[in-house]
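Hey, quick one: can you model this chain's 3D structure?
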Amino acid sequence: MAQCVTKVELSISCENLLNKDVGSKSDPLCVFFISTGENQWAEIDRTEQVKNCLAPKFSKKFLVDFYFEQIQKLKFGVYDIDNKTIDLKDDDFLGQFECTLGQIVSSKKLMRPLMLENKKLAGKGVISILAEEIKDNRAVNLQLQAQNLDKKDLFGKSDPYLEISKQTQDGKWQIAHRTEVIKNNLNPSWKAFKVALHSLCDGDLQRPVKVECYDYDNDGSHDLIGSFETTVAKFQEASQSGAAFDCINPKKKQKKKSYKNSGTVLIKTCEIVKDYSFLDYVMGGCQMNFTVGIDFTGSNGDPRSPNSLHYINPNGFNEYLMAIWSVGMVVQDYDTDKMFPVLGFGAQIPPNWQVSHEFPINFNSANPFCSGVQGIVDTYRKCLPQIRLYGPTNFSPIINHVAKFAATAAQQPTASQYYILLIITDGVITDLDETRHAIVNASKLPLSLIIVGVGEADFTAMEFLDGDDGVLRSPTGEAAVRDIVQFVPYRKFQNAAKEALAQSVLAEVPRQVTCYFNARKLSPLSRPTPSNEQKPSNEQTPSNVQKSANDQDLQGELNLEDGLDF
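Sure thing. Here's the predicted structure for all 566 residues.
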């Protein structure tokens, strides 16, 4: 029997949140969790942070698949964020709400009190969740600029930003996008952005859209500069004609008969595009190439000791094998030949016992592949007695190694290859600056990086690499063009269902895949019909680049800058 699945968009707003800051208001964001077992939750996504606000309307939406025949338990946690760490334990908890997706969908808009962990009310805090079915997979690329905005600040100009909202069926306004703030500028040009057409106008180009321009204030009391109502169809016309929209401040208009406007807004770009899904790319034939990097540094302990993280337990798997098995069993379904390169780092290897940070664990540089997940497990067990655990913990060599192959794929004008690198480690990164540089370069390529931390080490440095709470930058200040890192400590899943780890670490991969290919405007491949399919020959093709190339072929020939260019 076919499953009934629908894509649902969830919009979040809150009122009367607890105020945890002294001298200002809370700086809330909302975290979205899905249940992976009894009392086990996997974080799926986060909204943006809204500064100094006890009644935030979050512009970022949560997307989730709705299965009628399943009970899908969800949790929404609201936190006051006062630091840059991804860990929520050091943030002030403002309340949470648990429910099923079915409850939200059946209510369409659900408004409930926020609860503390002791099951008591979180003051008068309330969360509202609006559910809307997504039937339109189009999006609109927009870029706006303004001219001659009113000066709102006493000792400067204005610090303008825009809020763009759609009109709902009941005539109310639902925020669809909030731009960045541009400081001290009366003629700002905001960054280009993409918003789902469903979020902006329910796919109806004639549905009213409201644009509001505000002057940002640190205390949260943002001043309205002006606003106007229009439609996406008029956005399109204005982008072609150069016509400007008058930004009207109702109070000033009422006071002054000669009032004309508080500035104008121009539409530099308005382009409607099809927003392809992860399933579109996979069903079109995009290959997910899976590579594993294993930490063989001395801090793991002697593999012969039961206390070692690399101890081969005759009665079960160690944490390294559990992570490999959990993630690999999911990813292998998207790789046709199921041949996976596996690299070790931080060990002294035979015959010269030099420390290596990117050696094939089967010791075959010409053919570093393991057959299936079971092949990875078997090769790992054979490798351990043949190496000496050493150090340091360097990530950048393996990231750069896989990035070379991703750079080759990026040169192809097709959505045919995507790379997933799983690194399993027990300790703090030694080459943090080099790793930051490698990740920023890799963010331009068809590559996602999953890091699983095993053991009881302090993984703060790893959390810094996960860009969920901000943009990762290289030591030179270059920003990652997209978030490609997902880090989780294995200890969070020791007592969870066996699927929980994979669900958590792979949750962001579909979004990362679509973000990359959509940004490069690459459509899914057209998979040939079965009658026309042929086995690949020995000749190199885009689908077997990784299998046929080696480091020497690629050394010096590839430039990571050839990848994604935003």
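One thing worth noting: The first helix runs from residue 101 to 107.
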